[in-house]
From TrEMBL:
<dbReference type="GO" id="GO:0005524">
    <property type="term" value="F:ATP binding"/>
</dbReference>
<dbReference type="InterPro" id="IPR014721">
    <property type="entry name" value="Ribsml_uS5_D2-typ_fold_subgr"/>
</dbReference>
<keyword id="KW-0234">DNA repair</keyword>
<feature type="domain" description="MutL C-terminal dimerisation">
    <location>
        <begin position="422"/>
        <end position="565"/>
    </location>
</feature>
<dbReference type="InterPro" id="IPR042120">
    <property type="entry name" value="MutL_C_dimsub"/>
</dbReference>
<dbReference type="GO" id="GO:0030983">
    <property type="term" value="F:mismatched DNA binding"/>
</dbReference>
<protein>
    <recommendedName>
        <fullName>DNA mismatch repair protein MutL</fullName>
    </recommendedName>
</protein>
<dbReference type="InterPro" id="IPR014790">
    <property type="entry name" value="MutL_C"/>
</dbReference>
<dbReference type="InterPro" id="IPR020568">
    <property type="entry name" value="Ribosomal_Su5_D2-typ_SF"/>
</dbReference>
<feature type="domain" description="DNA mismatch repair protein S5">
    <location>
        <begin position="209"/>
        <end position="327"/>
    </location>
</feature>
<dbReference type="Pfam" id="PF13589">
    <property type="entry name" value="HATPase_c_3"/>
</dbReference>
<dbReference type="Pfam" id="PF01119">
    <property type="entry name" value="DNA_mis_repair"/>
</dbReference>
<comment type="similarity">
    <text>Belongs to the DNA mismatch repair MutL/HexB family.</text>
</comment>
<dbReference type="InterPro" id="IPR037198">
    <property type="entry name" value="MutL_C_sf"/>
</dbReference>
<dbReference type="InterPro" id="IPR013507">
    <property type="entry name" value="DNA_mismatch_S5_2-like"/>
</dbReference>
<dbReference type="GO" id="GO:0140664">
    <property type="term" value="F:ATP-dependent DNA damage sensor activity"/>
</dbReference>
<comment type="function">
    <text>This protein is involved in the repair of mismatches in DNA. It is required for dam-dependent methyl-directed DNA mismatch repair. May act as a 'molecular matchmaker', a protein that promotes the formation of a stable complex between two or more DNA-binding proteins in an ATP-dependent manner without itself being part of a final effector complex.</text>
</comment>
Length: 607
């Protein structure tokens, strides 16, 4: 019997590794930018086309590579970061395995242009599916430019699993934001389909946060700083009143590397205990500096998970530091700039002997009852005209008082639903309606959500949502990720009844909102809340896009507990509920209607 075990060819091994390292275009963006950071670049440009499917290009001004290194960097496990196994526990660079470039070259067309500062000529290398198809010297600027074209061209199954261009672009923006936050002193730009989405000059961390997420975040940030023998912690957290329903604005960086750690996230949330609204997540951008020998980052292909030597101590430090910052800065606002001293120079200090205390004077001969003096010192107002009309109110008959019990004849004439058992409201939360066998109890919020959800689904199907024109259109400026999301959802949002159009960079003009929205919020608040609810549903539920959008808008537009309803409103709500396809189930699958029979009531009273 012949041997059955054999070594895989390098091309096949690289494709297998690519499945772990490069899962989508955003993964390639992460690896390329990390290499540029390790090369010492202070200017990095990212150019993307068609959500990264046709082109991902990273241009940096780093140290560059020699001709030999330019060819060798595409070999598997070729790296300049480590030399021996012990180096794994002293890693401060972003990459170290030497798998990223080999994996990317195995599944794409790659063009590398690089030149060191001391070299006169650079090197240009072309690779297609791990095969070098060209290498030649070329006059190039100092630094490195890597262009990745036609990602997954030789793995059709993997390419077919990629999402739409806007979805893949949102993942790229997420990775870009994490790296831009981790290194605020580096200049970053991002161009997508010839449009500049980000232009981030080298700046402080707070300025970088504001430039990425919007100018409104300047007043939301609270600084955190703690130095211990175990870790050094610094960064910013958000004020509790600005917490959101999604986790998208939570960032932990360990030695400059973005990590996902539920244990440390719990430490931050625990510090917000009792001051955070329910089902809300605070903003935080926190940096942990720790001895590399006390952590292990080689536990996950994407290097987003880390093992710590003393997790409990780190947990306690983070929790106490966040609590202290909330107590110190949450009430008193802070300013980044120095105090303005221009006004202080206008005040000339006086010596103490020239300062006179204030004195109080009074007239001892003043008599308020002396009419002569009073008339001489002040004028008495004349008697107003038509004073006798003030007494006309006493001649009117008092209106009849409304009694709690009315006669049957009067009630049948005044009630619009005479002959029907009218519903009534219980604690402004539930509606009680009598039926032949007993009564039903309806959750008014869940019922209204079900009604609006089916109505919005019908609008999306027919593309005919009723709209209410705004008297004064409002401009809404979003961050790049939300701007991409709105662009992706724009046809469906307009079908729901929103009148919205693009207006400059990251800005939309809202000229109308769905007619069913009666929350009293501004157009900007409605759109931002819709985005938050949609992202929350997107993370929790695997549903079609239109259904998630209708679900989000229905939850936002539904009447809230504590809303008083008139008899006509309750009757209309019941009629519309029973006209739905699924009146008994809420959007979360819980019951909307509870039925109580007369027999159940008799058993309760032990009859």
């Amino acid at each position: 019997m012949s041997d059955v075990i054999q070594l895989l060819p390098d091309a096949v091994a690289n494709q297998i590794a690519a499945g772990e390292v490069v899962q989508r275009p955003a993964s390639a963006v992460k690896e390329l930018i990390e290499n540029a950071i390790d090369a010492g670049a202070d200017k990095i440009r990212l150019i993307v086309k068609e959500g990264g499917k046709s082109l991902i290009q990273v241009i940096d001004n780093g140290c560059g590579m020699s001709m030999t290194d330019a060819r060798l960097c595409f070999e598997r496990h070729a790296t300049s970061k480590i030399r021996k196994a012990e180096d794994l526990f002293a890693i401060r660079s972003m990459g170290f395995r030497g798998e990223a470039m080999a994996s990317i070259a195995a599944i794409a067309h790659v063009e590398l242009k690089t030149r060191r500062v001391e070299d006169e000529l650079g090197t240009r290398v072309e690779i297609e599916g791990s095969n070098v198809v060209g290498q030649e010297p070329e006059a190039l600027p100092a630094g490195t430019s890597i262009a990745v074209k036609n990602l997954f061209y030789n793995i059709p199954a993997r390419r077919n699993f990629l999402k739409s261009n806007p979805v893949e672009m949102r993942h790229i923006v997420d990775e870009f934001q994490r790296l831009a936050l981790a290194y605020p002193r580096i200049f970053f730009t991002l161009h997508s389909d010839n449009n500049e989405l980000f232009h981030l000059p080298g700046e402080s961390l707070k300025q970088r946060i504001v430039h990425i997420f919007g100018s409104g975040y300047n007043q939301r940030l609270v600084p955190v700083e703690e130095e211990t023998t175990i870790i050094n912690l610094k960064g910013f957290i958000g004020k509790p009143e600005y917490a959101k329903k999604t986790r998208g604005e939570q960032f932990f960086f360990v030695n400059g590397r973005f990590v996902k750690d539920p244990y440390l996230n719990h430490a931050v949330v625990k510090a917000y205990e009792d001051i955070l609204p329910s089902e809300s997540f605070p903003l935080y951008v926190l940096f942990i500096e720790i001895d590399p020998a006390k952590i292990d980052i080689n536990v996950h292909p994407t290097k987003t998970e880390i093992k710590y030597e003393d997790e409990r101590a780190i947990y306690a430090i983070i929790q106490s530091a966040v609590k202290r910052s909330l107590g110190r800065y949450n009430i008193t606002p802070t300013l980044d700039f120095n105090q303005e001293t221009g006004f202080s120079q206008m005040i000339s200090p006086k010596p103490l002997e020239e300062i006179t205390p204030p004195s109080v004077t009074f007239n001892p001969d003043f008599n308020p009852f002396d009419s002569g003096k009073a008339s001489g010192s002040r004028q008495v107002s004349p008697i107003p005209q038509n004073w006798d009309t003030l007494y006309q109110i006493s001649q009117k008959e008092a209106p009849a008082q409304l009694g709690l019990h009315r006669n049957d004849a009067d009630s049948s004439a005044e009630q619009p639903h005479a002959g029907k058992k009218q519903p009534f409201q219980l604690h402004n939360r539930y509606i009680v309606s009598q039926i032949h066998s007993g009564f039903i109890l309806i959750d008014q919020q869940a019922a209204h959500e079900r009604i609006l959800f089916e109505q919005f689904c019908q609008h999306l199907e027919n593309r005919q949502g009723a709209s209410q024109q705004s008297l004064f259109p409002q401009t809404v400026t979003l961050n790049a990720a939300d701007f991409q999301l709105i662009n992706d959802l724009l046809p469906d949002i307009q079908a729901l009844g929103f009148q919205i159009r693009e207006f400059g960079k990251h800005t939309f003009v809202v000229e109308g909102i769905p007619a069913d929205l009666t929350s009293g919020m501004s157009e900007r608040q409605v759109l931002e809340q819709l985005l938050e609810d949609y992202k929350n549903n997107q993370a929790a539920l695997k549903l079609p896009r239109r259904e998630k959008l209708a679900r989000s808008l229905a939850r936002h537009a539904a009447i809230k507990p504590g809303t008083a309803l008139s008899t006509d409103d309750m009757a209309e709500l019941i009629d519309r509920l029973f006209a739905c396809e699924m009146p008994n189930a809420s959007l979360s699958g819980k019951p909307v209607i509870l039925t109580f029979t007369l027999q159940e009531l008799s058993e309760r009273f032990e009859r």
